[in-house]
Structure formats: structure tokens, C-alpha cells
Amino acid sequence: MNDTTSRYRTMIGHRLFWPAAVLFVMLAANTIYRPGFLSIELKDGHLYGTPIDILRLSAPLILVALGMTLVISTGGIDLSVGSLCAISGAIACMYISKQPDQNSLGVVLTALAMAMGIALVLGAWNGVLVAVIGIQPIIATLILMVAGRGLAQLITQGQIITINSEPFRAIGLGHLLTLPLAIFIALAAALLVAAFTRRTALGMIVESVGGNAEASRLAGIRSGRVVFLTYVLSAGCAAIAGFMMTANVSSADGNAVGLWVELDAILAVVIGGTSLAGGRFFLGGTIIGALIIQTLTTTVYAMDISPQTSLLFKAVVVIAVCLIQAPAFRARFRRRRRNVPPPATIADKPKEQVPA
Amino acid sequence: MTTGSLTAGRTRFRLPRKQIPVLATLALLLVMYAIGVSQYTAFSNVQVIFNVFIDNGFLLVVAVGMTFVILTGGIDLSVGSVVAMTAMVSAALLQDGMPAPLVLVIALLIGPTLGLLMGCAIHFFEIQPFIVTLAGMFFARGMCTFISGASIPITDGFWTRMSQERIGNPQGNFVSISVLIAFVVVCIAAYTLAYTRLGRNVYAIGGNPQSALLMGLPVGRTRIAVYTISGLCSAIGGILLSFYTLSGAPLIAVGMELDVIAAVVIGGTVLTGGAGYVFGTVLGVLVLGVIQTLITFDGSLSSWWTKIVIGGLLFAFILLQRLIGIRYK
After folding, report:
1. Could you point out which of A48, A300, B106, B229 has its C-alpha 20 to 30 Å from the C-alpha of A104?
2. How many other C-beta atoms can be found within 10 angstroms of the C-beta atom of residue B55?
3. Which spans are transmembrane here (chain B) (predicted)?
């Protein structure tokens, strides 16, 4: 019996337990409300169904949140990702719309390369502001967040640019092996980031910079360079997400693309268990966090509630998840429960203090 | 500490280091105004300045509240949504035929209550202000659409009178009542920050929360008070906005929190807390207002240039703060 309780405790204590539980409860609630929720069907060689939709629609958010996870784990934050989505989408659509043959693969690739290049340059700008000049991240990226929306509108001249390009549309709506292509892009990005951070020392270096930039610099890590890299990576992820968002609707709207995605991404990262203070990151948690947010949005649509009201639910989820994860809240709650059986748990108390 | 030894070297010419960002903002404002006057003859009209105040009165009030929060080193992302919610609630209640004074009281209570709750969550559960106020922002915005999906017009006599009342001189220059209310708020806030115990505590916590706690200052109470003040200012801002637009719309003031933060930063308040003035915030709001006026006067520039210019200014001012060597994180 002791063994089962300790196993139960390690499971509850696992970082991914609470996010996964929330996701599971949401899916279960949906299935009870609408029994057909989880059904998937094969039509014209493509899989269709609500779970597939959730996966496809969460792909851009997963991408943005991946970059954001690394930035946050260095103790920073990147508010400019939404604007970067808009800028990269606008550049790609602008270039494609000017070409005579919009369906040519070469044109689309050039457009993507160009937009990606500019996004990386803007990411480098963020990186320089934070790592070289030493401006507080929240404010350094706020600059590009405000100005970037303006830039995106400048590129599109305030218009919504519509394009008619099959290869570009495929980024958002194409299929591969019966599944939407967007899922594979997000998955590939996640695996790539995971491989680079968890199979090499890079992840640990990022975490050590987040834990204490000065100490890791003294330990021989070029902190500045690592921080700079994370911002460039975040911009790159945001650019790909921007392509997906614009490809979904085959048009670029400087005002609307990626609006508030930075908040959703930060939310996904926090729900996933990564602390905003930096020093730790959990890529798996981030992906679950992004799925939770998209499931919530889909649920709200499915239940015929006004989409704007979904913000109300989002607020409740944020508060609930943050409270569950807040050490202060858990300690308070645990103390209250402890009053009932005092002797068994006192010995545990110092053990829980240690990892912090 | 290092700044102290640096300043000691040049005592001959001592521009008060702490005031340099505020002075720079003032200089920028004067330069922009001079450019406006030299380019457009109508710009020198006093009414242009009054209009800046009339159009930005609610922004000013909200920015004052944000100054308190930022001075303690926190941030409040919920202000824009709380402004919208306050306007929305008052519009909805007036539509239901509730008397105006009661509506005013209710509307003015919602913001501080939400602020108080957020402050408690930040203090007692040690959750990041960023996340808590983000949730507050979602909540308030969700409430707006929950109340009504479409905008609600206000036809109440008191509201229309407040909106149309013009206080002016015989030459035809005037300000609205909102501007006077905003001025009263600014004066009270400036007095509180400079001359009361609460104000001193705010600066002390922004400077170093640890030492403030060791000094025996009420860190928790002050922190909660600061978010409540910001909520109250947002509520007043919401009322002023409903005077201005005579309606409550669910999507009004979206992204306003960024304008407010930009105004506070341009006004010289350091984001890590501990340094800044309400007067600077007033200047910051005026800078944003004059930029808008200049772009309107020009006519050929599109609205998105406002955002680009604000972004550029933000960059310039943060760089300036950095160069002066005011302590950053």
C-alpha cells in the first residue's frame, strides 16, 4: 500500500500531470456533451473530425509557444511574436501577389525565404536589445509588438491582400498521409527543438542562463549569445506560424493575423509548467498547454457560445491552472489537509522543500 | 552604487539625474509642438492643445493608475478591458433604467474590486503579475461580450450633459468636464505619491521589495493597494470614455494597455520600478496625443504610422534611460 501511495504521489507530482488532467477532463466533458466529439472519419483519403481539427488549428500556436518556451526559460519574454506572424504573412503574400504565376513552387519558396529572412532579422533586433544593450525583455519586445503591427500594415498598405496560390495554401490546409500538413510541420519543429535542446547540452545551457545569467557567464557560457539565439529562434517559429495563419485564409491582414497569439502562447507555456522566472522548460508541457487552449476554443464554438465569451473561460482556466501550480497556494491547501492526519506527513515536509 | 561614485565626479553641472528622462520627454513634447506650429498655421490655436486633453482624458487617468503599478515593479495588463467593462456595465444598467448616481457607484466599484482580487492573487499566491492581470484582462473582456455582443447607446440625461458641457472662455476655447476630472485625478495621485506614506512605500517596494520588507514596510498591503488603485483609475477612465463616446461597446479600448504602458515609459518611469513621476506620465500621454494630432494634421500619413512612431519613441526613451545608467534589472 505504501508503494501505491508513493507511486500515486510521484504521478501527481509529475510536471505534466495537471496539464494532462485538465486536457483529459475537457475532452471528456466534450464527449459527454456531444457523443460524436471524438469520432474521426476517412473521406477522400483524408481524416476528418473534431480531434483532427483541434490538432490542425493548434499547429500555429504550438510553433509560437515552442519559441516562447525557450525565451521564457532564459528568464525573458517575447511579446512581439504576434506582430512577427503578421509581418511574415504580409511579406509572403505581398511577394506572391505581385508574381505572374502564383502557383509556381519557386515563387512560393522565394516568398517564404524572404519573409523568414526578415523575421529572423527582426528576431535578431530583439536579441540585440535584450542581450547586448541589456533592456528588460518585456519592454524590448513591446517595441516591436507596437511598431510591428504598424509595419505589417505598412507592407500591406492597410489592405487585406488575397492570393490564389496552391502551394502556399497547402501550408495551412494541405494533407500528407491522410493528416493535415500543418500537424507535421508543428511536429517536426517540436522534434527539432527537442532534439537540439535535450539531446545536446544546449537545453541545459539555456536553463542555466535562465537560472542565473551571471553565474553561467562565469562558468564559461556565453550567456548573451544564448539569449540572442532564443529570440532569433522564437522569431523563426513565429514566422512559420504566420505562414500557416495566412495560408489558412489565403490572405494577409496586417491588423488581424496573430492578434493576441503572444498571450495565448505565454499561457500555453505557463500551463505547461514552465516558470515565468526562467531556469526550467518543459517542451511537452507547452504542447499540451497549446492543445488545451485550442480545445477550449473549439469547445466554446461547439457549445454555441459567442467566441468572444471564450475569453471568460480562458480566464477561469488560467487562474485555475496558475493556482494549482503556485507553490504558495499548494502549500496553503496542503497545510489545511494536513491538520487531519498530522503524524504521517510531517516527515515529508522537508523533502518537498529540497528541489526548490 | 556605481552611479553614485560616477556622479560624485562632476558636481559642477548637476542636472538631477533622476529627472533627465522627464526633462527629455518635456523637450520632445516642445520640439514636436514647435514642428506642428511651424508646419501648420492652425496648430498654434490653443484649442488644439485642449483637444489633445479632451481626446486623451481617459487615457491620462488610466496611465496614472498604471504609474502606481509600474512604480512597484509590477504590470497591469487588464486596464484596457476594465475600461471597456466599466463603460459596458454603465451603458447596460442605464438602458435598464437605473438612476445615474447608482450606476456611477456600481461602475466605480467593479474596477477596484477586480483590482483588489488580482492584487490578492499576486501577493498571497505569489503568481506573476503578468499572468494574473492577463487573466483579469480575459475575464473583463469576456464579461463585456457576455453583457452584450453589440454596442449599447447611452441616452441618459446626466451622461449627455457631462458629455456636451463645455467649459470655456469667450474666445470659444473649451474643455470638457472629463478633462477637469482627469486633472483632479492627476493632482490627487501626484500628492499621494509625493507626500503620503503610501507613496513612499510604493517607491520603496519598487526600489527593492526585500529591503522594504526588512524595513518593516507593509509590502503586501501596498502591493494590493496599488492594483486596487489601478482598477479604480481604469474604472474612472471607463466612465470618462462612456462620457466621450456616449455608448458602451464590447470591443472598445482593445490594446489600450499597450498605449498606457508606452505613455508611462515615455514619461520616464522605469519599468523595474522605484523611479518615476505622475508628471512624467502626463507628459507621456501628451506626447502620444500630439503624435496623433500631427498625423491628423498632415493628412497624407496613414494611421499605422502612429504605431511605428510610438515604437520608435519607446526605443529611444528606453535607450536614453539605459544610457543615463538608471538601474535596470
Report:
1. A48
2. 17
3. 20-42, 48-70, 100-125, 132-154, 174-194, 224-245, 251-271, 303-324
Query: Which CATH number fits the domain that encloses residue A253?
Result: 1.10.3470
Q: Is residue A10 part of a domain?
A: no
What is the rounded CA–CA span in Å between residue A109 and residue B171? Answer: 63
Tell me how far CA of residue B30 lies from CA of A186, B23, B27, B34, B44, in angstroms.
50, 11, 5, 6, 12
Is A313 an interface residue toward B (CB < 8 Å)?
A: yes
pLDDT in tens, B234-248: 999 999 999 888 888
Question: Which pLDDT score is estimated for A250?
Answer: 83
Q: Does A131 touch chain B (CB under 8 A)?
A: no
Give residues 73 to 92 of A whose Cβ lies within 8 Å of B. 77
pLDDT in tens, chain A (356 residues): 567 777 777 766 677 787 888 888 888 888 888 887 777 777 777 777 788 888 888 999 999 999 999 999 998 889 899 999 999 999 999 898 888 887 888 888 999 999 999 999 999 999 999 988 888 888 788 888 888 888 998 888 888 888 888 888 888 787 777 788 888 999 999 999 999 888 888 888 888 888 888 888 888 888 888 999 999 999 999 999 999 999 888 888 877 787 778 888 988 888 888 877 788 888 988 999 999 888 888 887 777 777 667 777 777 877 777 777 677 777 777 666 555 544 443 333 333 333 33
Give the model confidence (pLDDT) of B283-322 as tens digits. Answer: 999 998 988 888 888 777 777 788 888 888 888 877 877 7
Residue A91 resides in a domain: yes
Range of the structural domain that residue A267 is part of: 47-334
Angstrom distance (rounded) from CA B19 to CA B25: 10
What does the angle CA B313 – CA B255 – CA A308 come to, to the nearest 5 degrees?
Answer: 165
| E strands present in chain B | 152-153, 166-168, 174-176, 247-248
Residues of chain B with Cβ-Cβ distance to A146 below 8 Å are 258, 262, 307, 310-311, 314
Cβ of B131 and A146 within 8 Å?
Answer: no
Q: Does A146 touch chain B (CB under 8 A)?
A: yes
| Pick from B86, B76, B207: nearest CA to B130 | B76
Question: Which residue in A has a C-alpha nearest to residue B304's C-alpha?
Answer: A150
Q: DSSP letters of B90-148? A: HHHHHHTT--HHHHHHHHHHHHHHHHHHHHHHHHHS---HHHHHHHHHHHHHHHHHHH-
Least Cα separation, residue A290 to chain B (angstroms): 16
For residue B304, give the nearest of A153, A270, A329 by CB distance.
A153
Shortest CA distance to B235 belongs to which of B117, B119, B82, B121?
A: B82
Task: Decide if the complex's ipTM is over 0.90.
Answer: no
Report how far apart the first and last C-alpha atoms of chain B are (Å, whole number).
Answer: 14
Task: Identify the burial level of B293 via C-beta atoms within 10 angstroms of its C-beta, where 0-12 means exposed, 13-18 middle and 19 or more buried.
Answer: buried
Residue A126: closest C-alpha in chain B? B315
A195 touches chain B (CB under 8 A): no
Domains belonging to chain B, first-starting first, are 17-165+175-324 (1.10.3470)
Mutate: best of A72, A132, A133, A142, partner B, most B CBs <10 A: A142
SS3 A116: helix
Region B197-218: mean pLDDT is 90
Number of independent structural domains in chain A: 1
- Tell me whether B325 touches chain A (CB under 8 Å): no
Output the average pLDDT for chain B: 85
The answer to whether the beta carbons of residues B233 and B83 sit under 8 Å apart is no
- For the whole model, what pTM was predicted? 0.81
Cβ contacts below 8 Å, chain A against chain B, sum to 134
DSSP one-letter string for A171-238: HHH-EETTEEHHHHHHHHHHHHHHHHHHSSTHHHHHHHHHH-HHHHHHTT--HHHHHHHHHHHHHHHH
